Known about the structure:
Layout: H1 2-9, E1 19-21, E2 29-36, E3 51-58, H2 62-70, E4 90-96, E5 103-111, E6 116-119, H3 121-124, E7 138-142, E8 155-164, E9 172-176, E10 203-211, E11 217-228
Parallel strand pairs: 3-11
Antiparallel strand pairs: 1-10, 2-3, 4-5, 4-7, 5-6, 6-9, 7-8, 8-9, 10-11
Amino acid sequence: TDPLRRASYGTRASTGDALQSSNRRSCMFTVVGVKARSSDKYFTRSSDLPMVDAYARISYHLDWIEESIWNVQPKETECGVDYKWDKLWHVAIFHRNITSNGFTFTCSGTLISAKHVVTTAGCVLNQTTGLPLPEDTFELKVGLERLSQPTAYAQTRYVSEVHVHPKSVAIGILVTSWPFRITQDVKPICLGLSKNSAIWNSDGEISGWETFETGSSQMIYVVAIVYQFLT
C-alpha cells in the first residue's frame, strides 16, 4: 500500500498503519487501497482533516495469529482505549543500518498484545530474497508522537521472532524479546471479527508519521471511510 499512500499524501515512510473506527473501539485492517480527495496539502492534527476513500479489508486471519503466534496464551482484556493521546498502539519500526550500525525508521506497525506487533509482510521481508529479515534487524518503539522527541512513556524493544503469513497474505508479525509494559499510555489495539459489519461504511482514521526534509517528524491523522474489500 505504500506507493498508493505516497501518491495520495506525498512522500512519507509509513506502512502497516492501523485504521480506527470512529466509535473508538478499534480493529486491525489491511489497507489495500487509498484514494485522497485532497492531495495538494499536508494535514496534521491541528488542521482540518481531509476526507479520503480507503478501501480496506479487516484481517480474516485471526486464526493464524491466535494459533501460530499467540499459541493460545492469555491476552490483555482491555484494548483500543485512549486516555491521553491517540494511537497508544502505534509502533515505529526501525531497521538496522548496515553502514552505521544504527537504526533508521522504515515502517510502522500496530501493537496487538504486550509482545506482538502486526505489520505488512513487506516490512519484515528481504526485498531481494523474499525471506524474513534477521531478528536483530529490528528496533521497535511505542509511545512516540514525534520520532525525534521520545516521550517520558516511550518504550523500546527488540525482536526475538519474525513471522510471515504462509499463504502469501501480506501480514507479518514481530514478537518482542521482552514484553512492552501495558500502561495508561501504551495499550494494544482490538482485533475485531470479520463478520462484524457495524464498522463498514463508517468513519475511521489512518495514522502515521510524516517526515519533513529537515528530519523532524510528527504523527498525522487522515479521516477515512471504511469499505469492505473481498478477495
